[in-house]
Amino acid sequence: MRKSFVLPKSLVKDSEVKAKEKWLGYLLGPAGALLLNAVLATYLNVYYTDVLGLTKLWGGAFLVIFPIISKIIDAITNVIMGYIIDRTHTKEGKARPWLLVSAPLLTIAGILLFTVPKASTTVQAIWVIVSYNLFYSFAYTIFNMSHNLMVPLSTRDTKQRGGLSVFNQITTIMMSGILVALIFPMVIMPMIGVDKSKWILLMSLLSILALPLTLLEYFFTKERVTLEKAEFKNEVKIPYLKQLKAIFTDKYMIIIYLYFLIYTMGSSIKNLSLVYFCNYVLGTYNDGITQTMISVIGGIPMGIGIFAVWPLAKRFGKRNVTLVGFILYSIGGIICWIFPTNMVIMLIGQFIKNIGGLPCSYVFMALFADVLDNFEWKVGFRSDGLAMSVYNIIAVAMVGICTGIFNGLLSAAGYVQPYYDEAGNLIATQTEAVKSAITFGFVGLEVFTGIILAILLIFLNVEKGLEKKQAEIKARQEAKE
Fold first, then answer.
1. Which sign, positive or negative, has the C-alpha torsion 435, 295, 197, 141?
2. Which residue, among 164, 237, 184, 203, has the nearest Cα to 37 in the 3D structure?
Protein backbone atom coordinates (compact mmCIF):
# COMPACT_ATOMS: atom_id res chain seq x y z
CA MET A 1 0.00 0.00 0.00
CA ARG A 2 1.57 3.28 -1.11
CA LYS A 3 2.20 6.20 1.18
CA SER A 4 0.36 8.50 -1.22
CA PHE A 5 -2.87 6.55 -0.88
CA VAL A 6 -5.33 8.65 1.14
CA LEU A 7 -7.26 6.68 3.75
CA PRO A 8 -10.14 7.83 5.94
CA LYS A 9 -8.70 9.06 9.22
CA SER A 10 -9.16 7.39 12.58
CA LEU A 11 -11.71 9.12 14.80
CA VAL A 12 -9.48 8.36 17.81
CA LYS A 13 -7.29 11.39 18.56
CA ASP A 14 -6.10 10.69 22.12
CA SER A 15 -2.56 9.56 22.91
CA GLU A 16 -4.00 7.37 25.70
CA VAL A 17 -6.67 4.69 25.37
CA LYS A 18 -10.07 6.16 26.32
CA ALA A 19 -13.52 4.66 26.88
CA LYS A 20 -14.80 5.48 23.38
CA GLU A 21 -12.00 3.48 21.79
CA LYS A 22 -12.61 0.51 24.10
CA TRP A 23 -16.36 0.38 23.59
CA LEU A 24 -16.60 1.15 19.88
CA GLY A 25 -13.28 -0.08 18.50
CA TYR A 26 -12.67 -3.18 20.61
CA LEU A 27 -16.08 -4.25 21.90
CA LEU A 28 -18.70 -3.35 19.26
CA GLY A 29 -16.59 -2.99 16.11
CA PRO A 30 -15.35 -6.58 15.80
CA ALA A 31 -18.75 -8.03 16.76
CA GLY A 32 -20.07 -8.52 13.21
CA ALA A 33 -17.11 -10.45 11.82
CA LEU A 34 -16.62 -12.43 15.04
CA LEU A 35 -20.31 -13.37 15.16
CA LEU A 36 -20.19 -14.55 11.56
CA ASN A 37 -17.04 -16.56 12.23
CA ALA A 38 -18.46 -18.03 15.46
CA VAL A 39 -21.58 -19.25 13.64
CA LEU A 40 -19.46 -20.75 10.88
CA ALA A 41 -17.11 -22.43 13.36
CA THR A 42 -20.06 -24.14 15.05
CA TYR A 43 -22.54 -24.72 12.25
CA LEU A 44 -20.86 -24.66 8.82
CA ASN A 45 -19.85 -28.31 9.14
CA VAL A 46 -23.40 -29.12 10.26
CA TYR A 47 -24.67 -27.36 7.11
CA TYR A 48 -22.37 -29.51 4.98
CA THR A 49 -23.27 -32.81 6.70
CA ASP A 50 -26.95 -32.36 7.58
CA VAL A 51 -28.31 -29.90 4.97
CA LEU A 52 -26.17 -30.55 1.89
CA GLY A 53 -25.53 -34.20 2.79
CA LEU A 54 -21.86 -34.23 1.80
CA THR A 55 -20.74 -36.83 4.37
CA LYS A 56 -20.61 -39.65 1.82
CA LEU A 57 -19.36 -37.56 -1.14
CA TRP A 58 -16.36 -39.23 -2.81
CA GLY A 59 -16.77 -42.18 -0.46
CA GLY A 60 -16.56 -39.90 2.58
CA ALA A 61 -13.24 -38.42 1.45
CA PHE A 62 -14.49 -34.98 0.40
CA LEU A 63 -15.15 -33.56 3.87
CA VAL A 64 -11.83 -35.02 5.04
CA ILE A 65 -9.56 -33.81 2.25
CA PHE A 66 -11.11 -30.48 1.23
CA PRO A 67 -10.75 -28.73 4.65
CA ILE A 68 -7.09 -29.76 4.91
CA ILE A 69 -6.19 -28.62 1.39
CA SER A 70 -8.13 -25.40 1.90
CA LYS A 71 -6.23 -24.63 5.08
CA ILE A 72 -2.91 -25.19 3.30
CA ILE A 73 -4.01 -22.46 0.88
CA ASP A 74 -5.11 -20.37 3.86
CA ALA A 75 -1.71 -20.82 5.49
CA ILE A 76 0.00 -19.56 2.34
CA THR A 77 -2.22 -16.48 2.17
CA ASN A 78 -1.45 -15.80 5.83
CA VAL A 79 2.27 -15.71 5.07
CA ILE A 80 1.62 -13.35 2.18
CA MET A 81 -0.64 -11.16 4.31
CA GLY A 82 1.94 -10.96 7.09
CA TYR A 83 4.56 -9.91 4.55
CA ILE A 84 2.19 -7.25 3.17
CA ILE A 85 1.28 -5.85 6.60
CA ASP A 86 4.94 -5.46 7.60
CA ARG A 87 5.49 -3.49 4.39
CA THR A 88 2.37 -1.35 4.61
CA HIS A 89 3.18 2.25 5.50
CA THR A 90 0.31 4.71 5.87
CA LYS A 91 -0.60 7.52 8.21
CA GLU A 92 -3.32 5.22 9.55
CA GLY A 93 -0.92 2.42 10.43
CA LYS A 94 0.06 -0.85 8.83
CA ALA A 95 -2.70 -3.22 9.98
CA ARG A 96 -5.77 -0.96 10.34
CA PRO A 97 -6.06 -0.16 6.60
CA TRP A 98 -6.71 -3.81 5.92
CA LEU A 99 -9.77 -3.75 8.18
CA LEU A 100 -11.21 -1.34 5.64
CA VAL A 101 -10.47 -3.74 2.80
CA SER A 102 -11.89 -6.76 4.62
CA ALA A 103 -15.31 -5.25 5.42
CA PRO A 104 -17.06 -5.76 2.02
CA LEU A 105 -15.17 -8.98 1.33
CA LEU A 106 -16.54 -10.63 4.48
CA THR A 107 -20.11 -9.85 3.41
CA ILE A 108 -19.76 -11.16 -0.14
CA ALA A 109 -17.85 -14.31 0.79
CA GLY A 110 -20.14 -15.08 3.75
CA ILE A 111 -23.22 -15.10 1.52
CA LEU A 112 -21.56 -17.27 -1.14
CA LEU A 113 -20.70 -19.92 1.47
CA PHE A 114 -24.37 -20.89 1.81
CA THR A 115 -25.83 -20.20 -1.64
CA VAL A 116 -24.66 -23.56 -2.98
CA PRO A 117 -26.76 -24.24 -6.12
CA LYS A 118 -28.99 -27.25 -6.63
CA ALA A 119 -26.84 -29.08 -9.14
CA SER A 120 -24.69 -32.18 -9.54
CA THR A 121 -22.45 -33.20 -6.68
CA THR A 122 -19.42 -32.11 -8.71
CA VAL A 123 -20.77 -28.59 -9.15
CA GLN A 124 -21.67 -28.43 -5.45
CA ALA A 125 -18.20 -29.63 -4.46
CA ILE A 126 -16.55 -26.95 -6.63
CA TRP A 127 -18.83 -24.23 -5.22
CA VAL A 128 -18.08 -25.33 -1.64
CA ILE A 129 -14.31 -25.34 -2.27
CA VAL A 130 -14.27 -21.93 -4.00
CA SER A 131 -16.59 -20.16 -1.55
CA TYR A 132 -14.83 -21.67 1.49
CA ASN A 133 -11.45 -20.45 0.30
CA LEU A 134 -12.81 -17.07 -0.74
CA PHE A 135 -14.01 -16.56 2.82
CA TYR A 136 -11.26 -18.15 4.91
CA SER A 137 -8.17 -17.86 2.70
CA PHE A 138 -8.96 -14.34 1.54
CA ALA A 139 -11.62 -12.27 3.33
CA TYR A 140 -11.28 -13.56 6.90
CA THR A 141 -7.49 -13.82 6.67
CA ILE A 142 -7.30 -10.11 5.88
CA PHE A 143 -9.68 -9.22 8.71
CA ASN A 144 -8.29 -11.60 11.31
CA MET A 145 -4.64 -10.64 10.92
CA SER A 146 -5.32 -6.92 11.06
CA HIS A 147 -7.87 -7.31 13.89
CA ASN A 148 -5.54 -9.43 16.03
CA LEU A 149 -2.75 -6.86 15.70
CA MET A 150 -4.88 -4.05 17.08
CA VAL A 151 -4.14 -4.91 20.73
CA PRO A 152 -0.35 -5.32 20.35
CA LEU A 153 -0.12 -2.15 18.23
CA SER A 154 -2.56 -0.05 20.27
CA THR A 155 -0.18 0.97 23.08
CA ARG A 156 2.89 -0.12 25.05
CA ASP A 157 1.12 0.51 28.35
CA THR A 158 0.62 -3.02 29.71
CA LYS A 159 -2.39 -2.04 31.83
CA GLN A 160 -4.18 -0.34 28.93
CA ARG A 161 -3.25 -3.18 26.61
CA GLY A 162 -4.58 -5.71 29.09
CA GLY A 163 -7.83 -3.78 29.33
CA LEU A 164 -8.19 -3.79 25.54
CA SER A 165 -7.49 -7.52 25.47
CA VAL A 166 -10.33 -8.07 27.95
CA PHE A 167 -12.72 -5.87 25.95
CA ASN A 168 -11.73 -7.72 22.79
CA GLN A 169 -12.40 -11.05 24.43
CA ILE A 170 -15.74 -9.90 25.83
CA THR A 171 -16.90 -9.47 22.23
CA THR A 172 -15.75 -12.98 21.36
CA ILE A 173 -17.50 -14.40 24.41
CA MET A 174 -20.69 -12.46 23.68
CA MET A 175 -20.79 -13.72 20.11
CA SER A 176 -19.78 -17.34 20.66
CA GLY A 177 -20.76 -17.83 24.29
CA ILE A 178 -24.13 -16.08 24.28
CA LEU A 179 -25.60 -15.64 20.79
CA VAL A 180 -24.20 -18.72 19.06
CA ALA A 181 -24.15 -21.00 22.10
CA LEU A 182 -27.44 -19.92 23.69
CA ILE A 183 -29.77 -18.21 21.22
CA PHE A 184 -28.94 -20.40 18.23
CA PRO A 185 -29.59 -23.85 19.75
CA MET A 186 -32.58 -22.69 21.79
CA VAL A 187 -34.39 -20.56 19.19
CA ILE A 188 -32.82 -20.45 15.75
CA MET A 189 -31.77 -24.04 15.03
CA PRO A 190 -35.19 -25.54 15.89
CA MET A 191 -36.70 -22.93 13.52
CA ILE A 192 -34.45 -23.50 10.51
CA GLY A 193 -33.80 -27.24 10.97
CA VAL A 194 -32.46 -28.60 7.66
CA ASP A 195 -34.30 -26.05 5.47
CA LYS A 196 -31.67 -24.71 3.05
CA SER A 197 -33.56 -21.52 2.16
CA LYS A 198 -33.80 -20.51 5.83
CA TRP A 199 -30.07 -21.13 6.29
CA ILE A 200 -29.30 -18.87 3.31
CA LEU A 201 -31.53 -16.06 4.63
CA LEU A 202 -30.03 -16.21 8.11
CA MET A 203 -26.41 -16.29 7.00
CA SER A 204 -26.94 -13.53 4.44
CA LEU A 205 -28.23 -11.25 7.22
CA LEU A 206 -25.25 -12.05 9.44
CA SER A 207 -22.84 -11.45 6.55
CA ILE A 208 -24.38 -8.05 5.79
CA LEU A 209 -24.17 -7.07 9.48
CA ALA A 210 -20.39 -7.60 9.41
CA LEU A 211 -19.87 -4.71 6.96
CA PRO A 212 -20.83 -1.63 9.04
CA LEU A 213 -19.42 -3.05 12.28
CA THR A 214 -16.01 -3.80 10.75
CA LEU A 215 -15.93 -0.21 9.47
CA LEU A 216 -16.65 0.88 13.05
CA GLU A 217 -13.58 -1.03 14.24
CA TYR A 218 -11.48 0.75 11.60
CA PHE A 219 -12.61 4.23 12.59
CA PHE A 220 -12.34 3.75 16.37
CA THR A 221 -8.92 2.12 16.73
CA LYS A 222 -5.43 3.61 16.60
CA GLU A 223 -1.94 2.11 16.10
CA ARG A 224 0.09 4.08 18.63
CA VAL A 225 3.07 1.70 18.53
CA THR A 226 3.29 2.00 14.74
CA LEU A 227 2.95 5.77 14.90
CA GLU A 228 5.60 5.88 17.62
CA LYS A 229 8.04 4.15 15.27
CA ALA A 230 7.04 6.43 12.40
CA GLU A 231 8.39 9.39 14.40
CA PHE A 232 11.90 8.02 13.90
CA LYS A 233 12.98 8.43 10.29
CA ASN A 234 16.12 6.31 10.47
CA GLU A 235 14.33 2.97 10.81
CA VAL A 236 16.22 0.22 8.94
CA LYS A 237 14.29 -2.25 6.77
CA ILE A 238 14.85 -5.78 8.05
CA PRO A 239 15.14 -8.60 5.46
CA TYR A 240 12.30 -11.10 5.55
CA LEU A 241 14.55 -14.14 6.11
CA LYS A 242 16.29 -12.40 9.00
CA GLN A 243 12.91 -11.74 10.64
CA LEU A 244 11.88 -15.35 10.09
CA LYS A 245 15.09 -16.70 11.62
CA ALA A 246 14.77 -14.36 14.60
CA ILE A 247 11.20 -15.48 15.32
CA PHE A 248 12.01 -19.19 15.22
CA THR A 249 15.10 -18.87 17.38
CA ASP A 250 13.35 -16.90 20.11
CA LYS A 251 12.48 -19.12 23.08
CA TYR A 252 9.30 -17.32 24.10
CA MET A 253 8.02 -17.10 20.51
CA ILE A 254 8.40 -20.85 20.11
CA ILE A 255 6.68 -21.54 23.42
CA ILE A 256 3.72 -19.23 22.72
CA TYR A 257 3.25 -20.75 19.26
CA LEU A 258 3.40 -24.30 20.61
CA TYR A 259 0.97 -23.29 23.36
CA PHE A 260 -1.43 -21.85 20.81
CA LEU A 261 -1.14 -24.88 18.51
CA ILE A 262 -2.06 -27.35 21.27
CA TYR A 263 -4.86 -25.16 22.58
CA THR A 264 -6.31 -24.68 19.09
CA MET A 265 -6.23 -28.40 18.37
CA GLY A 266 -8.26 -29.22 21.49
CA SER A 267 -10.72 -26.35 21.19
CA SER A 268 -11.29 -26.86 17.44
CA ILE A 269 -12.31 -30.49 17.79
CA LYS A 270 -14.40 -29.61 20.86
CA ASN A 271 -16.25 -26.88 18.95
CA LEU A 272 -16.85 -29.18 15.99
CA SER A 273 -18.16 -31.88 18.33
CA LEU A 274 -20.47 -29.63 20.38
CA VAL A 275 -23.59 -29.72 18.22
CA TYR A 276 -23.20 -33.43 17.47
CA PHE A 277 -22.63 -34.23 21.16
CA CYS A 278 -25.79 -32.39 22.22
CA ASN A 279 -27.84 -33.87 19.36
CA TYR A 280 -26.82 -37.51 19.77
CA VAL A 281 -25.08 -38.20 23.12
CA LEU A 282 -26.51 -35.93 25.81
CA GLY A 283 -29.80 -34.86 24.18
CA THR A 284 -31.90 -35.29 21.04
CA TYR A 285 -31.64 -33.60 17.66
CA ASN A 286 -32.18 -29.81 17.91
CA ASP A 287 -34.20 -30.27 21.11
CA GLY A 288 -33.66 -26.59 21.94
CA ILE A 289 -32.50 -27.19 25.52
CA THR A 290 -29.45 -29.50 25.75
CA GLN A 291 -26.96 -27.28 23.95
CA THR A 292 -28.44 -24.25 25.69
CA MET A 293 -27.88 -25.80 29.12
CA ILE A 294 -24.27 -26.70 28.27
CA SER A 295 -23.70 -23.19 26.96
CA VAL A 296 -25.32 -21.44 29.93
CA ILE A 297 -22.93 -23.22 32.27
CA GLY A 298 -20.13 -22.11 29.97
CA GLY A 299 -21.43 -18.56 29.85
CA ILE A 300 -21.69 -18.02 33.61
CA PRO A 301 -17.94 -18.37 34.23
CA MET A 302 -17.22 -16.16 31.23
CA GLY A 303 -19.40 -13.46 32.75
CA ILE A 304 -17.57 -13.77 36.07
CA GLY A 305 -14.27 -13.61 34.26
CA ILE A 306 -14.87 -10.08 33.02
CA PHE A 307 -14.45 -8.84 36.59
CA ALA A 308 -12.15 -11.46 38.11
CA VAL A 309 -9.48 -12.48 35.62
CA TRP A 310 -7.64 -9.24 34.98
CA PRO A 311 -7.28 -8.27 38.68
CA LEU A 312 -5.92 -11.76 39.36
CA ALA A 313 -3.60 -11.54 36.36
CA LYS A 314 -2.23 -8.18 37.51
CA ARG A 315 -1.58 -9.53 41.01
CA PHE A 316 -0.22 -12.99 40.25
CA GLY A 317 0.84 -12.67 36.61
CA LYS A 318 -0.90 -13.63 33.38
CA ARG A 319 1.18 -16.78 32.98
CA ASN A 320 0.59 -18.04 36.53
CA VAL A 321 -3.17 -17.54 36.52
CA THR A 322 -3.49 -19.24 33.14
CA LEU A 323 -1.37 -22.20 34.29
CA VAL A 324 -3.57 -22.86 37.35
CA GLY A 325 -6.61 -22.46 35.14
CA PHE A 326 -5.58 -25.29 32.86
CA ILE A 327 -5.27 -27.65 35.82
CA LEU A 328 -8.93 -26.97 36.64
CA TYR A 329 -9.69 -27.29 32.94
CA SER A 330 -8.43 -30.87 32.88
CA ILE A 331 -10.21 -31.81 36.11
CA GLY A 332 -13.53 -30.60 34.71
CA GLY A 333 -12.88 -32.48 31.48
CA ILE A 334 -12.27 -35.75 33.34
CA ILE A 335 -15.60 -35.41 35.18
CA CYS A 336 -17.43 -34.84 31.88
CA TRP A 337 -15.69 -37.73 30.15
CA ILE A 338 -16.66 -40.22 32.87
CA PHE A 339 -20.37 -39.22 32.83
CA PRO A 340 -21.15 -37.98 29.28
CA THR A 341 -24.88 -38.84 29.39
CA ASN A 342 -25.66 -37.49 32.88
CA MET A 343 -26.86 -33.91 32.48
CA VAL A 344 -26.28 -32.82 36.11
CA ILE A 345 -22.74 -34.19 36.36
CA MET A 346 -21.94 -32.91 32.86
CA LEU A 347 -23.00 -29.40 33.89
CA ILE A 348 -20.85 -29.56 37.03
CA GLY A 349 -17.86 -30.72 35.01
CA GLN A 350 -18.44 -28.05 32.36
CA PHE A 351 -18.65 -25.35 35.03
CA ILE A 352 -15.29 -26.39 36.53
CA LYS A 353 -13.75 -26.69 33.08
CA ASN A 354 -14.93 -23.26 31.97
CA ILE A 355 -13.74 -21.61 35.19
CA GLY A 356 -10.33 -23.06 34.38
CA GLY A 357 -10.45 -21.77 30.83
CA LEU A 358 -11.16 -18.16 31.83
CA PRO A 359 -7.56 -16.87 32.06
CA CYS A 360 -6.60 -18.26 28.66
CA SER A 361 -9.68 -16.69 27.08
CA TYR A 362 -9.17 -13.21 28.48
CA VAL A 363 -5.42 -12.62 28.66
CA PHE A 364 -3.87 -14.59 25.80
CA MET A 365 -3.57 -11.67 23.39
CA ALA A 366 -2.03 -9.49 26.10
CA LEU A 367 0.47 -12.29 26.81
CA PHE A 368 1.22 -12.54 23.10
CA ALA A 369 1.80 -8.76 23.02
CA ASP A 370 4.30 -9.17 25.88
CA VAL A 371 6.15 -11.77 23.82
CA LEU A 372 6.27 -9.34 20.87
CA ASP A 373 7.74 -6.60 23.07
CA ASN A 374 10.31 -9.00 24.54
CA PHE A 375 11.21 -10.09 21.02
CA GLU A 376 11.76 -6.45 19.96
CA TRP A 377 13.94 -5.84 23.03
CA LYS A 378 16.02 -8.93 22.26
CA VAL A 379 16.59 -8.55 18.49
CA GLY A 380 16.18 -4.79 18.04
CA PHE A 381 13.26 -4.76 15.59
CA ARG A 382 9.55 -5.61 15.43
CA SER A 383 7.99 -8.21 13.12
CA ASP A 384 4.30 -7.84 13.97
CA GLY A 385 2.95 -8.90 10.58
CA LEU A 386 5.19 -11.94 10.26
CA ALA A 387 4.62 -12.96 13.89
CA MET A 388 0.86 -12.67 13.42
CA SER A 389 0.99 -14.58 10.14
CA VAL A 390 2.66 -17.52 11.94
CA TYR A 391 -0.02 -17.26 14.65
CA ASN A 392 -2.78 -17.32 12.03
CA ILE A 393 -1.14 -20.14 10.09
CA ILE A 394 -1.31 -22.25 13.24
CA ALA A 395 -4.95 -21.27 13.75
CA VAL A 396 -6.12 -22.00 10.22
CA ALA A 397 -3.98 -25.08 9.68
CA MET A 398 -5.16 -26.71 12.90
CA VAL A 399 -8.79 -25.90 12.19
CA GLY A 400 -8.50 -27.51 8.75
CA ILE A 401 -6.63 -30.55 10.02
CA CYS A 402 -9.03 -30.97 12.94
CA THR A 403 -12.06 -30.61 10.68
CA GLY A 404 -10.69 -33.27 8.38
CA ILE A 405 -9.88 -35.59 11.28
CA PHE A 406 -13.30 -35.11 12.89
CA ASN A 407 -15.19 -35.67 9.63
CA GLY A 408 -13.03 -38.72 8.97
CA LEU A 409 -13.96 -40.12 12.38
CA LEU A 410 -17.66 -39.53 11.71
CA SER A 411 -17.48 -41.19 8.31
CA ALA A 412 -15.41 -44.14 9.55
CA ALA A 413 -17.72 -44.68 12.53
CA GLY A 414 -20.77 -44.71 10.22
CA TYR A 415 -22.38 -41.29 10.68
CA VAL A 416 -25.87 -41.14 9.12
CA GLN A 417 -27.38 -37.90 7.76
CA PRO A 418 -30.74 -37.03 9.41
CA TYR A 419 -33.73 -37.71 7.14
CA TYR A 420 -37.52 -37.58 7.10
CA ASP A 421 -39.49 -40.84 6.98
CA GLU A 422 -42.68 -41.34 4.99
CA ALA A 423 -44.76 -39.96 7.85
CA GLY A 424 -42.74 -36.73 7.90
CA ASN A 425 -40.87 -37.51 11.11
CA LEU A 426 -37.23 -36.49 11.39
CA ILE A 427 -35.01 -39.51 12.00
CA ALA A 428 -31.68 -38.66 13.62
CA THR A 429 -29.93 -41.50 15.42
CA GLN A 430 -26.33 -42.75 15.51
CA THR A 431 -24.49 -45.93 16.51
CA GLU A 432 -22.52 -46.29 19.76
CA ALA A 433 -19.29 -46.07 17.76
CA VAL A 434 -20.30 -42.66 16.40
CA LYS A 435 -21.34 -41.49 19.88
CA SER A 436 -17.99 -42.57 21.36
CA ALA A 437 -16.05 -40.66 18.69
CA ILE A 438 -18.15 -37.55 19.30
CA THR A 439 -17.72 -37.81 23.09
CA PHE A 440 -13.93 -38.04 22.85
CA GLY A 441 -13.93 -35.00 20.59
CA PHE A 442 -16.07 -32.93 22.92
CA VAL A 443 -14.68 -33.77 26.38
CA GLY A 444 -11.88 -36.33 26.15
CA LEU A 445 -9.19 -34.67 24.06
CA GLU A 446 -9.02 -31.48 26.12
CA VAL A 447 -8.19 -33.44 29.26
CA PHE A 448 -4.83 -34.17 27.68
CA THR A 449 -4.29 -30.78 26.05
CA GLY A 450 -5.04 -29.01 29.36
CA ILE A 451 -2.32 -30.97 31.18
CA ILE A 452 0.21 -30.35 28.40
CA LEU A 453 -0.56 -26.61 28.35
CA ALA A 454 -0.13 -26.27 32.12
CA ILE A 455 3.33 -27.86 31.84
CA LEU A 456 4.26 -25.71 28.85
CA LEU A 457 3.34 -22.46 30.61
CA ILE A 458 5.94 -23.13 33.31
CA PHE A 459 8.57 -22.09 30.77
CA LEU A 460 6.77 -18.91 29.53
CA ASN A 461 8.22 -16.45 32.04
CA VAL A 462 8.08 -13.48 29.65
CA GLU A 463 6.52 -10.96 32.05
CA LYS A 464 9.61 -10.74 34.27
CA GLY A 465 11.31 -7.35 33.81
CA LEU A 466 9.10 -6.39 30.87
CA GLU A 467 8.52 -2.75 31.85
CA LYS A 468 12.29 -2.18 32.04
CA LYS A 469 12.70 -3.77 28.62
CA GLN A 470 9.99 -1.52 27.14
CA ALA A 471 11.80 1.54 28.51
CA GLU A 472 15.04 0.32 26.91
CA ILE A 473 13.29 -0.09 23.54
CA LYS A 474 12.12 3.52 23.56
CA ALA A 475 15.56 4.74 24.69
CA ARG A 476 17.18 2.90 21.78
CA GLN A 477 14.80 4.48 19.28
CA GLU A 478 15.50 7.96 20.64
CA ALA A 479 19.25 7.31 20.54
CA LYS A 480 19.09 6.19 16.89
CA GLU A 481 17.16 9.33 15.95
1. negative
2. 203
Q: How far, CA to CA in Å, does 338 sit from each of 141, 199, 269?
A: 38, 35, 18
- Phi/psi-derived region of residue 97, left when phi > 0, alpha when psi is between -120 and 50, beta in every other case: alpha
Q: Which amino acid is at 191?
A: M
Nearest residue to 267 via CA among 78, 449, 452 = 449
> Is the distance from CB of 106 to CB of 33 less than 8 angstroms?
yes
In this predicted structure, the answer to whether residue 4 has a pLDDT above a threshold of 50 is: no
Query: Taking the CB of residue 385, how many other CB atoms lie within 10 A of it?
Result: 24
d(CA 127, CA 125): 5
Q: How far is CA 143 from CA 140, 148, 179, 259, 403, in A?
A: 5, 8, 21, 23, 22
pLDDT at 3: 45
The string of pLDDT tens digits covering residues 49-97 is: 888 988 888 887 888 888 888 888 988 898 888 889 888 888 888 999 9
What size, in residues, is the chain? Answer: 481
Q: What is the pTM of this model?
A: 0.70
Q: What is the CA radius of gyration of the chain?
A: 22
